Amino acid sequence: MIEGKVWKYGDNVNTDVIFPGKYTYTVTDPAEMASHAMEDLDPEFAMNVKPGDIVVGGANFGCGSSREQAAFCLKAAGVGAVIAKSFARLYFRNCINAGLPAFVQPELVDAVSAGDVIKVDISSGKIIAGSEYPFPEFPEEVKAILESGGLVEWVKSQAG
């Protein structure tokens, strides 16, 4: 169960505002990456996000470059999940690789506001925000990656 406050953003939130491009090759420490999360879109985010909080976006969340830091910085900041009307394909996969659950649930996006507290119950396939909003179950392989904390950790677990 993931429970947290909603940080809500609109359509076409691109990777440059999730993790500014100027840090792509200079910032690699997860804590420092977290300090720059959403910097160009919401300067208050990195200072105020709490573990388990949930980023909610509109259509085409994570568009732009394929930079994986845009998913990893949210994970490092403690974000418990990202929910959007739709995702850029590579960004969605980068979330999974980072061990950051990402869900498509357009009705929920329209129903919640910034600051609402919601719950994501992965085992039952529902997001609870006053009402219940179902989402498609992840394939077993994706569940295993998320449960391992990300792709690198999953690969390590398979090698041993």
Give a written overview of the molecule:
This protein is α/β, with parallel strands linked by helices and 160 residues long. The protein has helices spanning 15-18, 30-35, 45-48, 69-76, 89-98, 106-111, 140-148, 151-159, and strands at 2-8, 54-57, 81-84, 102-104, 117-121, 126-129, 131-134. Helix 4 crosses helix 5 (89-98). The longest helix is centred in the middle third of the chain and has 10 residues, at 89-98. The relative contact order is 0.17.
Summarize the structure.
With 160 residues, this protein is α/β, with parallel strands linked by helices. The chain is built from eight helices and seven strands, in the order βαααβαβαβαβββαα.
Features:
160 residues, alpha/beta, Aconitase, domain 4, seven-stranded mixed sheet, 7 strands, 35% helix, 19% strand
Low-confidence stretches: none
Task: Provide the succession of SSEs.
Answer: EHHHEHEHEHEEEHH
Q: How would a textbook summarize the main sheet?
A: 7 strands, mixed
Rg on CA atoms, Å: 15 Å
For the secondary structure, the number of strands is 7
First-last Cα distance = 28 Å
Write the layout of secondary structure elements.
Blueprint: E1 2-8, H1 15-18, H2 30-35, H3 45-48, E2 54-57, H4 69-76, E3 81-84, H5 89-98, E4 102-104, H6 106-111, E5 117-121, E6 126-129, E7 131-134, H7 140-148, H8 151-159
Parallel strand pairs: 1-2, 2-3, 3-4
Antiparallel strand pairs: 1-5, 5-6, 6-7
